[in-house]
Design a protein that fits this description.
By secondary structure, the protein is an alpha/beta fold. It has a single domain, classed as Rossmann fold. Helix 7 links the parallel strand 4 and strand 5. It starts with a helix and ends in a 7-residue tail after the last strand. The model has no long low-confidence stretch (mean pLDDT about 95). The structure holds S-adenosylmethionine. The site of S-adenosylmethionine has 21 residues, from helix 1 and strand 2. Pfam families: Methyltransf_11. Its EC number is 2.1.1.-. It is an enzyme of class 2 (transferase).
Length: about 210
């Protein structure tokens, strides 16, 4: 019961437990966020859209590299933490933090040079719909970087039960992305923490077939 409640909070942080979860996420996800942001190969001035930005740690890292960042999250509690963490860049107009849903992104077609999705694919009930929406907002030669903790590491975690989390190994993640209209540039297994393996996928939009 408690574990399931934690799983639900990770999916949608609310109230004081959600604020607490936000602080835990910032610490626990430090290395995955760093690895995923490195994989974006950011050039200053590029526009990055982050899906499920949580407490805004990756947003801060990307803004420090000169990117323009739009962070989307469904949780007011997370956006409040992300705004505090990124106040200076929000005031300067370099960072926008918006309440929203990842299957209806408040971003124009082709407006994102990069899309970042860290620890969010577990919650994609309609993964095809989310990936279609990412394809819509991603520029033609844009890059999607996605991080998940590997299924073999997560299986023992009581909060990540099947009711709240969908888990991925290398094969199922590659299948998810190619089924969603992306071509993998690479998929690396990384050390996400002590005894924890993660997967970092970098991919581009598959070309639209003229006869399709
Ligand atoms: C496990 S947290 C990951 C946060 C951050 N990316 C990190 O790795 O530290 C998942 C985040 O996705 C957000 N989220 C879940 N479902 C969402 C949806 N449908 N639309 C937008 N955000 C969503 C949650 O509110 C939460 O902040």
């Amino acid at each position: 019961m408690v574990w399931h409640a934690i799983g639900l909070q990770l999916r949608h942080p609310r109230g004081w437990p959600g604020r607490l979860i936000g602080h835990v996420m910032r610490l626990a996800n430090h290395r995955p966020n760093r690895l995923a942001v490195d994989a974006l190969e950011l050039v200053p001035g590029q526009h990055v859209l982050e899906l499920g930005c949580g407490p805004g740690a990756a947003v801060a890292r990307m803004a420090a590299r000169g990117a323009r960042v739009t962070g989307i999250d469904q949780s007011e509690a997370m956006l409040a933490q992300a705004r505090r963490r990124n106040r200076r860049h929000v005031v300067a107009g370099q960072v926008a933090l918006r309440l929203g849903q990842w299957h209806r992104l408040p971003v124009a077609d082709g407006a994102a040079d990069r899309v970042l999705a860290v620890n969010v694919a577990y919650f994609w009930e309609d993964a095809a719909g989310v990936l279609a929406e990412i394809r819509r907002v991603l520029a033609q030669n844009g890059l999607l970087v996605l991080y998940v903790t590997a299924a073999d590491s997560m299986r023992g975690w009581k909060f990540a039960d099947a009711a709240t989390h969908r888990l991925y190994d290398e094969d199922s993640l590659a299948a998810l992305l190619s089924g969603g209209g992306f071509v993998l540039a690479d998929l690396r297994r990384v050390r996400a923490g002590p005894g924890v393996a993660g997967l970092v996928a970098r991919c581009r939009k598959a070309p639209v077939r003229k006869d399709a």
